[in-house]
Amino acid sequence: VSFSLKIPMLSLPKLHPSTSPLSIPLHPHHPELQNLQFSENQRHGSPLSSLGKPIAAASVIALLSASLCFAHPALAFKGGGPYGQEVTRGQDLSGKDFSGKTLIKQDFKTSILRMANFKGAKLVGASFFDADLTGADLSDADLRGADLSLANLTKANLTNANLEGALATGNTSFRGSIITGADFTDVPLRDDQREYLCKFADGVNPTTGNATRDTLLCK
C-alpha cells in the first residue's frame, strides 16, 4: 500500500532590509504556524529586545551574588572603624601598637589584646566586648561610649583615660588596673566593682577636670 502526502508550499514575501524575520505574516491556511507568530507584528519591534531587560537584570543579580560569595573574608570583620582593611575582631592582636590612632567605633569584639598599646588612641564608641585587654596600655585614651562589657582589663593601664558613658556590664574585670586620673562618669558598675576601684582611686582627669573618686561616686 502506498500513501502520498501533499504538503502545500508556503509563499513568503521578500524581506525588506528593515523587516524582522519574525514579523513575516504566515500562510493563512496554517493556523498551527500562526500560533507560533509573536506579537511582534503589533509592536513592530524584535521580540528579542523585550528579553533584554530581564536578561540584563538577571546578569546583575548573578554578578552581585558572586561578589558576595567571593568577597575577601576580612570585609566581614572590619566593623565600623576606619582602621584600613585589617581585621580587628576575633583576632590575636597581643602587643599590637595602636597608640595615637583614630579608632572610632572600631570592632575589637572577642579579640586577644594582651599588652596592646592604645595610649592616646581615640576609641569613642569602640567595642571591646568580651575582649582580653590584660596588661594593655589605655592611658590617655578616649574611651567615651566604648563597650567594655565582659572585657578583661586585669592590670590594664587606664591612667587619665576618659571612660564617660562606657559600658562595663557583666563580669568586666578591673583587677590590678591603674586608674589614676581616669574618668568613670556614667559608667554602670556593679557595687562590688565600684567598691573595689574606690580602694585605690585617685587623681584628676586632665581632659574633663573630674576627680576619679568623684566619678566613681566613692564614699
Compact summary:
InterPro entries: 5peptide_repeat, At2g44920-like. By secondary structure, the chain is mainly α.
Question: So, CATH architecture of one domain?
Answer: 3 Solenoid
Secondary-structure element pattern, one letter each: HHHHH
For the largest beta-sheet, the strand count, sense and barrel status come to: none
Assign the structural class, choosing from mainly alpha, mainly beta, alpha/beta, alpha+beta, or little secondary structure.
mainly alpha
Could you tell me the strand content as a percent range?
under 5%
CATH 4th-level superfamily of one domain: E3 ubiquitin-protein ligase SopA
Rounded to the nearest angstrom, the radius of gyration is: 36 Å
Distance between the termini: 119 Å
CATH class of one domain: Mainly Beta
Helix fraction? 10-25%
Shape: globular
The low-pLDDT segments are: 1-13, 15-51, 63-80
Number of helices: 5
Walk me through the topology:
Layout (H helix, E strand, L loop, with lengths): L30 H4 L5 H4 L3 H23 L121 H8 L13 H4 L4
Keywords:
5 helices; disordered N terminus; mainly alpha; 0% strand; Pectate Lyase C-like
Give a structural overview.
This protein has 219 residues and is mainly α. It is built from 5 helices and no strands. It comes from Opuntia streptacantha (Prickly pear cactus). This is Thylakoid lumenal 15 kDa protein 1, chloroplastic. One of its GO terms (cellular component) is chloroplast thylakoid.
